[in-house]
Amino acid sequence: SLLQQEIRQEEGHEWLDGIVESCQRAKITITQAIRTAQDKSKKPRHWVTTG
């Protein structure tokens, strides 16, 4: 039974690692989306000021 618990813990850690990786990827995509959104919001203002 101890061996089974150890195996379950290892599987759980792998599962958590996968969640951490997906969260980090999500953060990267969110930051990129925010940057692109800011760039898009900046462009019209530039057009208004220059035009």
UniProtKB/TrEMBL annotation:
Q: What is this protein called?
A: Uncharacterized protein
Gene (UniProt): ORF171565
